[in-house]
Write a structure and sequence with these properties.
With about 425 residues, this protein is an alpha/beta fold. Helices cover about 35% and strands about 15% of the residues. Strands 1-7-6-5-4-2-3 form a 7-stranded mixed β-sheet, with helices on both faces. A 5-stranded mixed β-sheet has the order 8-9-12-11-10.
Length: about 425
């Protein structure tokens, strides 16, 4: 933990309680209503009722602080509304909607996906603890757990997400948590997620999953036994490439503990970004359904191209995790990777010739983006370390948008043909 910082993690003597699947605690009538389908939840969950001054859209509360409702009966800190505490009306609305989408008790939004990841780990782990992490994590996460986390006295052990035996072999007496990604970046691997969650529960470990690539439209980890769900809300939750945010979702006591840590660290989200994220989530179901369809069509086309060495996409029968993804996911997601024949020069040439996709980092937006992970998300890793993970220099990651599938396919075909 941070020097002088008191851990907010529950003591290990406390019994491990089962996560419930109820939506976030309601603060008004509409939050209390039950919406069965995610398409409806995305629109209506978390909305204030009655609507504030009749406004159909949630207003932006451009205020850093709020006066006490009853100055003569102030209860102290719990009665305080202040922007750094992530509890303004805009925070409350977006967090309630997100909790409903993931089927959780509570949610917390943060200033970035990495703020969600780091704050959660600093809350749940103490000096001397060990973390079990899946191999092939996002570069930023890998860098934190192998670098900064060690400076707080926490060690990390890695395991193969598709091999539960490797997970069992990596457990140590001081292991306290397991960390995985629903779909890994950029190799789009799908771990044996239910088995990992079950293993964690059987061994008294907290299971943490980054659900960014799948989104709650394709997969709800809490329903499969995970304890804590993380998101880079910058990506699919928002979907419009115009904000940076993160999210932590799970049982109320866990989210409250992470919130207390975040309040000390100061990684709050401003109300304007809350409002943009709130608006973006309303179209989540429509966007991700379109991205699922487009990515599958593009992956199939690329797999038939004579200019392509290999295509990685869970929706392809050739993918090692295809059967698992088909069983677990509503859709296979909007992310794929491929390697053109001819190595790095061929990959760079193809990126230059593409007309529709933009060569840019990040993912999950309505526009198609392409990038070389060796020069972006995993550039911080040593080349040998990167290749050992299966990330070659010529690997191209594609975040598929909602453009017309036939135009995307035609564009990739002409770019690869040269």
């Amino acid at each position: 933990m941070l020097p002088g910082f008191t851990s907010t993690r529950p003591t290990r003597a406390e019994p491990r309680r089962e996560l419930t699947r109820a939506p976030a605690r309601p603060t008004n009538a509409r939050m209390a209503k039950s919406f069965r389908r995610i398409e409806t939840q995305a629109i209506h969950a978390g909305e204030p009722e009655p609507r504030i001054h009749g406004a159909v859209a949630m207003p932006i509360f451009q205020s850093a602080t709020f006066e006490y409702a009853d100055a003569g009966n102030v209860r102290g800190h719990d009665d305080l509304r202040y922007i750094r505490l992530n509890n303004t009306p805009n925070h409350a609305a977006v967090q309630a909607k997100l909790a409903a989408l993931e089927g959780a008790e509570a949610a917390l939004v943060t200033a970035s996906g990495m703020a969600a990841i780091t704050t959660t780990l600093l809350t749940l782990l103490r000096p001397g603890d060990r973390l079990l992490a899946q191999r092939g994590l996002y570069g930023g996460t890998h860098g934190f757990v192998t670098g900064e986390l060690a400076s707080f006295g926490v060690e990390v052990d890695f395991f193969d997400g598709g091999d539960i035996a490797s997970l069992a072999a990596a457990v140590r007496p001081k292991t306290r948590a397991v960390y995985v990604e629903t779909i890994t970046n950029p190799l789009v691997e799908v771990a044996d997620l239910p088995a990992i969650a079950a293993f964690a529960r059987e061994h008294g470990l907290t299971s943490i999953i980054d659900n960014t690539f799948a989104s709650p439209f394709n997969f709800r980890p809490l329903a499969h036994g995970f304890d804590v769900v993380l998101h880079s809300a910058t990506k699919y939750l928002n979907g419009h490439s115009d904000l940076v945010a993160g999210a932590v979702v799970g049982a109320r006591d866990t989210v409250d503990a992470v919130t207390r840590t975040l309040n000390h660290l100061g990684g709050c989200l401003n109300p304007e970004t809350c409002a943009l994220l709130h608006r973006g989530m309303k179209t989540l179901a429509l966007r991700v359904a379109a991205q699922n369809a487009n990515a599958l069509a593009l992956a199939l086309a690329l797999s038939k191209s004579p200019a392509v060495e290999r295509v990685l996409y869970p929706g392809l029968a050739s993918h090692a995790g295809h059967a698992r993804a088909k069983e677990l996911f509503r859709g296979f997601g909007g992310m794929l990777s491929f390697e053109p024949k001819g190595g790095l020069p061929a990959a760079e040439a193809a990126l230059r010739r593409l007309r529709i996709p933009l060569v840019a980092p990040s993912l999950g937006g309505v526009e198609t983006l392409v990038i070389l992970p060796s020069k972006s998300s995993h550039a911080g890793l040593a080349p040998d370390e990167r290749r050992a993970m299966g990330i070659g220099d010529a690997l191209v990651r594609v975040s598929v948008g909602i453009e017309a599938a036939e135009e995307l396919i035609e564009d990739f075909e002409q770019a690869l043909a040269g």
